[in-house]
Amino acid sequence: MRVEELADRIIDYRGKTPPKSAAGVPLITAKVIKGGRISQPNEFISEDTYDTWMRRGLPQQWDVLVTTEAPLGEVALLRTAERIALAQRVILIRGRSDIVDQRFLVYAFQSPLVQGRLQARATGTTVPGIKQSELRQVDVPLPPLDTQRKIAAALSAYDELVENNLRRIEILEEMAQAVFREWFVNFRFPGREDVPLVDSELGPIPEDWRITTVGDSIDLNPRVRLPRDQPVRFVPMGSLIEGSMVIDAFESRDRPSGSQFRNGDTLLARITPSLENGKTGFVQFLADGEIGCGSTEFITMRPSAVPATFVYLLARTDDFRQVAINSMVGASGRQRVQEAAVAAHLFPCPDRSLLDRFEVSVRPMFMLVENLVAQNRNLRATRDLLLPKLVSGEIDVSDLDVDTEWLAS
After folding, report:
1. pLDDT band per the 50, 70, 90 thresholds, residue 337
2. Nearest to 121 by CA among 107, 100, 140, 101
3. Domains along the chain?
4. CB–CB of 262/290 below 8 Å?
5. Is the distance from CB of 17 to CB of 87 less than 8 angstroms?
6. How many Cα atoms occupy the beta-carbon half-sphere of 244 within 13 Å?
7. Which residues of 31-134 form beta strands (DSSP E)?
8. What is the pTM assigned to this prediction?
9. Is the dihedral angle over the CA atoms 192, 196, 197, 199 positive or is it negative?
10. CA–CA–CA angle 289, 379, 26 (5° rounding)
């Protein structure tokens, strides 16, 4: 059935983006819709702008959002009932409740069948995009409503496990950051009762701690020799999640150029720094001795005089990120963090024994994060194998006794 036939409402702000503000109503842009999820928005419009901007219709919980360009065809379910605003290149589809299950509709749009139909109706060579008039004509497989719900229930079970793991990852990272702040920002570390504070160029710090620079304690963009006879795992910028240590995915490439890294390195994105989010990933998915490559927009931070976990958590502090933001230069829209400014950043550093105790305290959190990330990769791979077979009807679930009541919650 064509999209225009199954839709009760289509809302499109294509070609227009509202004026943004520092806070207010979250703005859903094409770049935060990826892999069936909506990442935490980092752009907003004011309350006053929202009232005048969203005149074409107000998004509702369980609406389907589809990106029309840069990238084309990413889709996600709007799970929140909170107010959101739509930017350009995002189209909202609200299916007719008598014939469409919204969760099924998301999976249908993710299937290779519908993705191929979207691409077939797209225009543009460098950046393909689709007009609303063409999107309306895209044919979507639509089995009976009860079957849709069974398919959605089967696939959603995988996605719910992924979401649970993502929440656990977020909590683990918050815990690690809290420990770092207590020990190295607030100076409430084990044994602090016997250590007086003394003046320094950064203010009072514990006695016998030293002031050092990132450049003196951390190797920036170290170069290594890549293997000549085998593919290299490559991390594009899109594989990092804003505000998280997680490196969500990687590719295999033959002798790529760009940043080089190994397990224990931190990848700092030059182009997306912010105090709250920004892309800063921690590498721990490679085999022992393996070298990976990444976007040229990464600064690789390799531990030398401080432990690997310390490097990553230092790069997540407000002071460090403010230095990165202040160093950005370049034409509008193409500003880059300057490596020299990162290298010159000052921080207080204790002796090695306390650093080692810190590593022992937080390393299990990092390891558990990577285990959860690996679980999610496997869950997504299994779901992706099932999805096209279920949506196309190759696997018939119409006669299965599947509980679909929970989908309404």
Report:
1. very high
2. 140
3. 3-142 (3.90.220.20), 143-190+351-409 (1.10.287), 210-349 (3.90.220.20)
4. yes
5. yes
6. 20
7. 33-34, 37-38, 44-45, 64-68, 72-77, 85-86, 90-95
8. 0.86
9. negative
10. 100
* Distance between CA atoms of residues 306 and 353, nearest Å: 11
Distance, in Å, from the CA atom of 148 to the CA atom of 398, rounded to the nearest integer, reads 9
Residue 149 to residue 153: CA distance in whole angstroms: 6
Contact (Cβ atoms closer than 8 angstroms) between residue 265 and residue 301: yes
* Cα separation values, 217 from 211, 260, 338, 348, Å: 11, 19, 18, 11
Give the other-Cβ count within 10 Å of 151's Cβ: 28
Residue 262 and residue 294 in contact, taking contact as beta carbons nearer than 8 Å = no
Could you count the other beta carbons within 10 Å of the beta carbon of residue 336? 15
Cβ atoms of 275 and 242 within 8 Å: the answer is: no
Spatial separation of the C-alpha atoms in residues 349 and 208, rounded to whole Å: 9
Band of the pLDDT at 331, cuts 50, 70, 90? confident
In 249-290, the DSSP E strands lie at: 251-253, 259-261, 266-269, 280-282
CA distance 207 to 220: 28
Instruction: Find out whether 287 and 322 touch, Cβ atoms under 8 Å.
Output: no
Note the residue count of the chain.
409
Give per-residue pLDDT as tens, 51-73. Answer: 888 888 889 999 999 999 988 99
User: What's the rounded mean pLDDT across residues 145-167?
Assistant: 94
CA distance 75 to 124: 20
Can you tell me whether residue 166 is helix, strand or coil? helix
* N-term to C-term CA, the chain: 27
